[in-house]
Amino acid sequence: MPIQFFVTPEQSGQRLDKFLGAECSDFSRARLQGFIKDGHALVNQVSAKPSYPLRAGDEIVFQVPHETAPSPLAAQDIPINFIFEDDTLIVLNKPAGLVVHPGAGNREGTLANGLLHHCGALEIVGGEGRPGIVHRLDKETSGCLVVAKTEAAHNSLSAQFAAREVEKSYLALCDGTPRMPHGKIDAAIGRHAVHRQKMAVVDRGRDALTHYRVLGNRDGKSLVECRPRTGRTHQIRVHLKHLGHPVTGDPQYGRRGTCERHFLHAWKLGFKHPATGKRVHFTATLSPDFPEWALDAARAREADRMEKFA
Fold first, then answer.
1. CA distance 151 to 288
2. Region 3-68: CATH code
3. Torsion angle, alpha carbons of 117, 121, 127, 133, to 10
4. Which residues pair with 91 in a beta bridge?
């Protein structure tokens, strides 16, 4: 069946083939370019070239040719830590190490497989291989993730993310201590000039803004609360590196050391409930692999709502 996407402001400017490459990781970019040239991807109901520069609000409908469609995603009994669930949505606390979406050669053991086992009706929500999943977290990032159980809820939540109406708060364990206890990092992000798999602060990138506050520090580390106002790829990790205090255990933007993962946690999420229209807030308890003093600092602030800070 066709897969429908809507381009967010953060995705504006991407080539069509690169966009589909990120969203449909079962296929190589070269293969996707062939699909696009053969008319299997429509932008605003019109065929487009692979190099077409997307704009916010563009509708993309991608029809995978029948003979090349990947095998159906299998439902698997994977433990999921549910924070909230009703007839409209699920909010869960994703553990570090769990992949969200299946990819090429990786059709099992993902959050998507577990969601299908828990609620099989999600299979058609949000597109094939993405059962109800509205946004993503990196494999090593733990924390809050919202899943839509109906197409209407998926559309509502996707629109809120696109309009930057979703409140997001992360906790990061960082190397060192920022000079200022709170502030903002306003620095454009784009592809690294040499290492194309990495992002970096660049002169001519896409605008990116992160507010931060130091919640505690000990033993050469700091627990920093980050609230991104934009949603660029690896934004918090790149911005903290730019500040001079990369996320602890991040081999891409800092150093792995003896850590098993980078210490970034999607802590709080706030949005308008698609069914009731009321504002709702959720908190994902910080992972126990963080230092005990960091857990204490998080608990001390956990009762605070999403009040603004700069």
1. 34
2. 3.10.290.10
3. -60
4. 84, 146
Please state, in angstroms and rounded to a whole number, the distance separating the CA atoms of residues 164 and 155.
Answer: 14
**DSSP codes of every residue in the chain:** --EEEE--GGGTT-BHHHHHHHH-TTS-HHHHHHHHHTT-EEETTEE--TTPBP-TT-EEEE---GGGPPPPPPP-----EEEEE-SSEEEEEEPTT--SS-BTTB-SSSHHHHHHHH-GGGGGSSSTT-TTB-S---TT-EEEEEEESSHHHHHHHHHHHHTT-SEEEEEEEEES--SSSEEEEE--EEE-SS-TTSEEE-TTSB--EEEEEEEEEETTEEEEEEEESS--TTHHHHHHHHHT-PBTT-TTTS--TT-SS--EEEEEEEEE-TTT--EEEEEPPPPTTS-HHHHHHHHHHHT--S----
- Every domain of the chain with CATH number 3.30.2350.10 lies at 81-162, 167-302
Residue 299 phi, psi (nearest 5):
-60, -40
**What is the residue type of 309?**
F
Report yes or no: 267 and 170 within 8 Å, Cβ to Cβ: yes
Taking the domain 167-302, which CATH number applies? 3.30.2350.10
Residues of the chain with CATH 3.10.290.10: 3-68
Contact 98, 139 (CB under 8 A): yes
Q: Which residues pair with 103 in a beta bridge?
A: 106
Provide the annotated active-site residues. Answer: 138
Residue with tokens 């190490």: 97
Give tens-digit pLDDT for 182-214: 999 999 999 888 887 789 999 988 999 999 999
The two tokens of residue 97 are 């190490």
List the CATH code of the domain at 81-162: 3.30.2350.10
pLDDT in tens, 236-278: 999 999 999 999 999 999 999 999 999 999 999 999 999 999 9
Is a pLDDT exceeding 60 seen at residue 126?
yes
